[in-house]
């Protein structure tokens, strides 16, 4: 079925058009969403995002005019997956709960307490940088991920992620300068 036939079907019978749209483009949407969410979400998140993508496409079916339908669907899936990834990253906690933190070992408990306080302050300041800067810094320096992996996860080019990382580090340095 061509794009124009599919649009006509959706205008005349939305249910039949939705079924045909889903059958034709499910694998395409799934591939886009999976590629973007594989590092930050679960299989359930991918399936939810695919369903939400089709729901959004159908809710805006009247607004799709002369555009290439596949390009429109691909962009909608990409944008929805990026929003899901950002939402999932905001929900994640990167700090260790106090109950799970190991007991300090060593003679100098005061020094250990200062280090722990500095680490907590650093994590709080990183979170204050906002998205995607906080995610970039945490993924790079706490989890040791490559910039290419991080860029793909946050939906930026590798160069853009590197630039954001550098700027975020400068802002963090300025923020922490007066702390000690």
Descriptive terms for the model:
mainly alpha; 2 domains; Arc Repressor Mutant, subunit A; 180 residues; single chain; 73% helix; Rna Polymerase Sigma Factor, Chain: A
Report the span from N to C terminus: 66 Å
| Mass-distribution shape | elongated
| Domains (count) | 2
The CATH first-level class of the largest domain comes to Mainly Alpha
Let me know the number of strands. Answer: 0
Q: Output the structural class.
A: mainly alpha
Number of helices, where a helix is a run of at least 4 consecutive DSSP H or I residues: 8
Poorly predicted regions are 93-106
pLDDT average, as an integer? Answer: 79
Gyration radius from CA atoms, angstroms: 22 Å
Give the ordered list of helices and strands: HHHHHHHH
SS strand fraction? under 5%
The major beta sheet can be summarized as: none
**CATH architecture field of the largest domain:** Orthogonal Bundle
User: According to CATH, what is the topology of the largest domain?
Assistant: Rna Polymerase Sigma Factor, Chain: A
**Helix share of residues?**
over 70%
CATH superfamily of the largest domain: RNA polymerase sigma factor, region 2, helix turn helix motif
């Amino acid at each position: 079925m061509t794009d124009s036939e599919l649009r006509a079907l959706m205008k005349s019978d939305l249910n039949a058009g939705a079924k045909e749209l889903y059958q034709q483009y499910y694998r395409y949407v799934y591939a886009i969403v999976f590629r973007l969410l594989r590092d930050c979400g679960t299989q359930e998140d991918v399936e939810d995002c695919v369903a939400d993508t089709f729901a959004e496409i159908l809710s805006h079916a009247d607004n799709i005019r002369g555009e290439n339908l596949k390009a429109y669907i691909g962009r909608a899936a990409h944008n929805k997956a990026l929003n899901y990834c950002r939402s999932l990253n905001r929900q994640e906690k990167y700090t260790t709960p106090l109950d799970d933190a190991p007991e300090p070992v060593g003679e100098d408990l005061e020094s250990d307490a200062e280090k722990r306080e500095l680490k907590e302050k650093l994590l709080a300041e990183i979170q204050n940088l906002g998205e995607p800067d906080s995610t970039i810094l945490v993924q790079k320096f706490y989890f040791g991920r490559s910039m290419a992996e991080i860029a793909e996860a946050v939906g930026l080019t590798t160069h853009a992620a590197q630039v954001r990382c550098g700027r975020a580090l400068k802002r963090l340095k300025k923020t922490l300068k007066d702390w000690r």
